[in-house]
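User: For documentation purposes, I need each entry recorded in a consistent format: the amino acid sequence on its own, followed directly by the corresponding structure tokens. There are two entries in this batch. Please keep commentary to a minimum and don't merge the entries.

Assistant: Recorded as requested. Entry 1:
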Amino acid sequence: MIKKLFVGITALILAVNLSAQNVCSCDDFTRELKGAYDQAFRSANYPEATKITKQLASSTDKCCKAKAQIMFANIHFNEDKFDSVRYRVVMSEKILGDTYDSLVTPEQFRLRGQVCAAQEKPDSTIYYYLEGLKNSEQHNNIGYVVKFCNDISYTFAGINQADRGLPYMKLAVEKALEIKDNALCAMAYSNLATTYGMMAETTGNSKYIDSLSVFAPLSLKYAKLANDRMYMIKSYNILGGLAVTNYEFDKAIAYCDTVISQLPPKGMEQLMVSALYRKGQSQYALGYMETSLQTLHQGLTIAKTLNISAIVQLFYQQLYYTYKDNRDPDNALLYLEKYKSLNDSLMNIEKSTIINSLEQQYNKEKNEQTIKELSQEKQISALRIRFLIAGVAVALFLALSILLIYRQKLLKQQQTILETEQRLNRARMNPHFFFNALTALQSFALRENDGKQLANNLSKFSHIMRETLESSYKDYVTIEQEVDFLREYLELQKIRFPNKFTYHLDLVKDIETESLMIPSMIIQPFVENSIEHGFSGITYHGELKVLFDEEQENVVIIIIDNGKGLISGTKENNEHISRASQIIKDRIYLLNIKLKTKASFTIDNNNNEPGVIVKIYLPKINKDESTAN
């Protein structure tokens, strides 16, 4: 299903260009009348705009009468009276006959295309826009060449094919610069930057972000030169999107607030929706969950009234993430289901095939304009060849579609992996441990006054800190390195909790501790839970055991404590154990994807004895193998 993109914006551009594109020679339609019409139209005062247009319709000049019909159509379009739009376009065609008017004729194609876009008919939309582009090129009407290129690009973006609109946007910039029209340059650069932004979001390719960084400031530059308030606002909106892409969320919120505060109450709802979406995204990224939810729901309400499926889908997706991180599983599931349902209905191969054929037809006609006369036999032969080429093109397109779908699945999987890795880097070790350990060292220094032992403990602490930081860059460590790390970590914990617990690190005799590798920091979350929460509040001496063993092709790690356990423990204790379980679950998920293994773990109460027992099953990874991976 094609999305109805930027319909209100393009209609507003039409109102401006009725006075800017041509200077009408009608005595009945003075410059003052044009200004009054523009002001009424921009403020959505359609009765007043209609009254002014009727004065132009009373002219005896057929070009002015045809212009009036286009102005009527423009008003009807913004009132969603699409049958009336078609009627006015037909009337303008009858009035002009075979006469070409540099404003009216292109608008006939454009309005037909806009109606099809509003009714979500991408094949018909592309047809009228390509016909309008071809007609404008034939009459060297550069202004409308730029506009039709923009419209074609929007349509491709609406069916998630922004890359196919890119050549048209580049042509629009080239033509706008050619005639040195600042307003057209602002339009072209703004839409080119928008296209690169869509491609960056779709593919994640940094080269598109680089292009966006170049063209977004140019859009604002030419908008200011043209004193075009609408495109200045749109440029700020694009810069807000760029700030989000660069993780500059405070800057993004500032740009979005500028857009929201400067937008008129009606006529530019699409920019309002876009600004609210970016602002909600940024608030979410900064951790302002409740504020983000308010902003996103405000934007979703407007997007639904505009019936822009692509934007509604984005809001559903972001609301899912926000509710999920805000620990509201019911609403998170609700918006995930809405997102998936809408995503399944957006696009089908049949419509894409039709659009592809129409674009091929346009390019073919453009390249063959010099061929005027062919014999009947040659025409039949050329027709057969065209059918053959079209068949091959359709077959290639279907094959390409299958490859793109497969590639999209791979990209989603890679995205999941990257998101999980980011969560893991933030959850490597509880940062409160560093503060508590330093406090314990300070107390030890004041209590024991043993400089040598203090230096030894500081050495352990620095080694643990270094290992923790380096673990963000190392996927695997040897069992020997992990044992050394755990021993130093536990010794520091004993300083914090003197006489609270003892520990044992046991290895089976034949295990190759120097060559076998395990994922770094995979044991520490459970050890931390045993000490911080399992032994918290107990009246007896705590014991902690960590055993490294082998079982067929696996390395088995067993962690046993005699703490409070899962059932008798407090809710806080169980929540911390659940967090540790989720960290390990994410680590093992990544390990299984990267190495195609079946690693796993279990956690349970220790039979009839107090405490918890954790078993982690990892594949045997030799030192050389881990380096290769």
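Entry 2:
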Amino acid sequence: MSYARFIPPLKPNQPVPLPSTQITLDAVDHSSTDKIPRELYGHFAEHLGRCIHEGIWVGEESKIPHTRGLRNDVVAALQRLSIPVLRWPGGCFADEYHWKDGIGPRNERRAMINNHWGGVVESNQFGTHEFMDLVEMLGCDAYIAGNVGSGTVREMQEWVEYLTADVDSTLVQLRRAHGRQEPWRVHYFGVGNENWICGGNMRPEFYADEYRRYQTYVRHHQPDRPIYRIACGASEDDFRWTEVVMERAADYMDGLSFHFYTIPTDDWDDKGEATGFAPHQWFAAFRRTARMDDLLTRHSAIMDRFDPEKRVGLIVDEWGTWHNVEAGTNPRFLYQQNTLRDALVAAQTLHIFHRHRERVRMANIAQTVNVLQAMILTDGPRMLCTPTYHVFEMMKVHQNATFLPLSIASPPENESTAGNLPLLDASASRDTEGHVNISLINFDPDTAHEIQLTLPAAETTDRTLAGRILTAESCDAHNTFDEPNRIVPREFTPDSISATGILTLPIPARSIVLISIS
């Protein structure tokens, strides 16, 4: 396939002019409290397909190198991302999950049918202790999704007690008997998931009342470390759900969830292929992703009516690309390849979150391993990191850094072939050591664009420049188990800053560039 556009013939030795975009870094000394929450770079691992089993968990009898059943290569790769928070056990699976089935001796645990994801048998070999072990190995926070759809208030209350209490109760004694003496720290607890569909087909009025009841029993057994309680929020443009739940339950929640997936075709029955896609589906993915910006604005405006102080966080705990499954795989395992297009969608989405940082407090890409827009793919003992993984690794410099506003001026003709989608996007921050990091995206599949970046005087004196780039030779390029490093970040050498404080950069086609000024 060809993504080339018509280029008029040039005269001999005539240089090719690059489309030019002006970007200005705001010179105002912004407060160090205006942070990009590190939790925007969160992840999600559900009992779905091969995410947990084969992906994260191989068991203590496996020949694949592991630590207490958690495969070493996957854990090491995830550690390099500085994951801030991991959501588990679902997803739709959460509202069928009964936590007591996943504790105690593994050979005595109750197996169940995973009704949502292929009707396969879930062994429950990976349960509470295994998840909290993983969280501690990753050095991240735990976000646990509780069962409202098929569970009970008592069941949720007892899970929180088992996890976090430190008194001599029967449940705490049980936890200790299973090998964990000290209570765990559970930072986030979700009271249900997608209760408007797989979590019980509830109306928002009914769910709001159920949420008020269930959250009452998510007890703070560690008063100095209260649990952040997250209510089930809306999908996409269901603004009524947000309005009803906020009106009836805002005072009882700390966060409200939101789900949005990038489907290039806008057709859930035929979402398009992850690879070999038609040229028009390149820009279709980015236009669909751009809808996230408007939806967050509109849901935030509803939340502002009931919570003008922005106490309640908007939690985008499911997002990412969703394509047709890989041919020959179980259609309910949601295994898909991950290309350069997915990587640019990830960077675009993270930039959107940066701009909505005042209301959006956490986000969790779906999912960590072998499912949807995964960080990692595995095949038996083999493992690879996807282009999306490399975006998260490159852009982790923005985690908890001070947000620096940018203004972008791009000629209107630069948007014509993209259907009014700006072809360049950027986000900037200053880290705790004073380094300025600017991530840049060129959505143009064929043409490099010149960036003229104007910097404030304070950023131009005695400063060192460094850069990294993620790109590939084709729009659907991806890593394979035979070529796991086909797409990896490379060094990108920027020119020096001019005397007038302008940094001129040619940004290659279909690329993500990170510039660091130190």
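Summary note for entry 2:
The longest helix spans residues 280-306.
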